[in-house]
Design brief:
mainly beta, Immunoglobulin-like, 10 strands, about 15% helix, binds copper (II) ion
Amino acid sequence: MFLRALVSAAALLTLAACNSGDRAPAPGAPTVQVADALCRPTPRGRQTTGCYMTLTASGADRLVSVESPDANIVQIHESRMESNMMMMQQMRDGMPLAAGQATALAPGGNHLMLLGVKEPLAVGDTVTLKLIFATAAPVEVTATVAQPVASEYDQTTAH
Ligand SMILES: [Cu+2]
């Protein structure tokens, strides 16, 4: 009787250890879907470029930070008009994501900024981006290097 209790206690411990090592999200845990990830080619002689995509979170969340093996730093930027000039600045608290609603990172709006790109990026290359959220599990995406659909904004700035 005593031995049996010991054995089942050991089995429970093993199970607990397995569960804590397993990082799969619990059923019903929030997730973020990423679509149409794209980075611009790096302008000649520059190590900076912009990346765009569409994020849809299952529950209210926040894109907190982004990492890439292909750039030293990735920042989340917002664009705004100031005295007729398109200015951009880092969103230090990240970018909020409303539940079930597609949020675009797009030319002329919010975007990801790669700083210190390690190898020049040409059309057809890919960039690996790891998106880190406040609640959802991180998502790794492979962005294609391509020119985004032309917009007015494209004529005045590199991103
Ligand atoms: Cu920027």
